[in-house]
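Exercise: predict the fold of this chain.
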Amino acid sequence: MLCSACNLVTVCTQRSWKRPYGVGLLVAGLDESGAHLYYNCPSGNYFEYQAFAIGSRSQAAKTYLERKFEKFTESSRDDLVKDALFAIRETLQGEKLTSSVCTIAVVGFGEAFNILDQETVQALINEFDISGEEAPINESVAEQSVGDDQRGAAAEQAAPMDI
């Protein structure tokens, strides 16, 4: 299905008389090998990701997801929803996270595709206290920043090509 959609989009980028769609698409699915998330970019290419965000101000969400994605395989459903809400909150630039600015859909083994209603999403936001709570600091990020300081001192002593 995704390949067919990408082929359709690609044709529009290769013909001079056709106009490209200019739309990105996230496609999530589940099969025997597990969950999959694909990004179909406007050029017609598609890439598989563990976690991804698209849209305006999505870079903040991508950064949050990149820091956390290694823990996703061991996380519970509620933890994954909480991380998704934190990622959305990262994009809001001072606005308060409410159920009116986000939609959550869930799919899993033994669980049909389900879009959560706004009341459920707001209850999750309130339960996790995400609207004003700071995201938990990842211990490995703190350790990495200490390691970066030590590498920075070593880099100053090394020749530019040795870095």
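Check your answer against the key: Residues 137-163 have pLDDT under 50 and may be disordered.
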